[in-house]
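Can anyone check this?
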Amino acid sequence: MWFNLSLILASALVLTSALSFYYYSNYTMAEQRYKDTLSSLNDVSYKVNILIKYSNGTKTWHNQTIIPVGWSLFNTTLKVTGGKVEGSWSSFGVFVTSINGVSGTGPKYWLWFTWDEGNKGWTSGQTGADSYIMKPGDTIGWLLTDDWKATP
């Protein structure tokens, strides 16, 4: 009887070890495929940071947002807000008038800035949001303000 019980336990141990090895092997292969996929994404996309600062001082950061190569600031803002961006179009490009349902009304308007790492400061955008093509690692700040000299 003890012999049979020992044989059953040894068989269960071998079976458990084999299953553990099988699942561990599948896990490591899946992990490697995941890393390969992330690596290939770097060839067609990159990460950027978007700040949205409202006139009451509330700030919303969207850090490490992955976007396709060639996207504009307008496309990126649409992505981080879930499509909640409105604007008016002209020959100069799109002028954003509302972000997340907050409109630039009265004397307030939406301005965008890029973070200049060299100068450790914000630089105002010089084009419409649809004309600015995002670059890898960009940090962009949107600001709702009535002061042309204010920065995020």
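Reply from J.R.: I decoded it. The radius of gyration is 26 Å.
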